[in-house]
TrEMBL record:
Keywords: Hydrolase, Metal-binding, Metalloprotease, Protease, Zinc. It comes from Chamaesiphon polymorphus CCALA 037. The keyword DNA damage does not apply. This is MPN domain-containing protein. SMART domains: JAB_MPN. It comes from the Bacteria.
Amino acid sequence: MTLIINATQIQSIYHHAKNVYPEECCGILLGTIDKLTKTVVEVIPTDNAWEQSESVFGVASSLENLDRTKASRYTIPPQDIFQAQKRGRDLQLNIIGFFHSHPDCPAIPSSCDRDRAWDIYSYPIVSVIQGKVSNFQSWVLDCNGIFREEEIHQG
Ligand SMILES: [Zn+2]
C-alpha cells in the first residue's frame, strides 16, 4: 500500500502537531482506497481526549497509568470519529487512517499504538523534536499484525 497525500495536507498535520506540542496531536484522514493506494482527501485534526477517556474509564488511579499523559498517549474523541464517518458518507469517502504526533520521540509506533491499531487503516506519525517537525512516517499492520512502514507519495 502507498499513502498519497499532498503538501497542503501534510502541512496541516505538521501545523496541528506543532500547535499542541509538547502534547500529542491526533486526527482523522478521510479519503479513497483502491487495491494499491490510499489517497487522502481531507485531514481532520481533532482534540486529544486522552484525559477525558482516562477519567471515564477510571484507570487514572493505577501507578502504571501515571505517566500516560497527553505527551505520550492519544485518544480521538468518539464523537469526532462519528462525525468523520458521517462526513465520509456524505462525500463518498472513507476513514483511511489516523495520524498522531510523537513529541520528542521518533516517528515509530509504540506498543500502545500497536495494541489499538486496526489492519485496514494507515497510521502516519509525525515526530516533533523541541517543537519542530523532524520526521513523518506512515505505518500499516501486515498480515501478522506487525507494523510496517508504508510508502508515502506526495500527490
Ligand atoms: Zn504513538
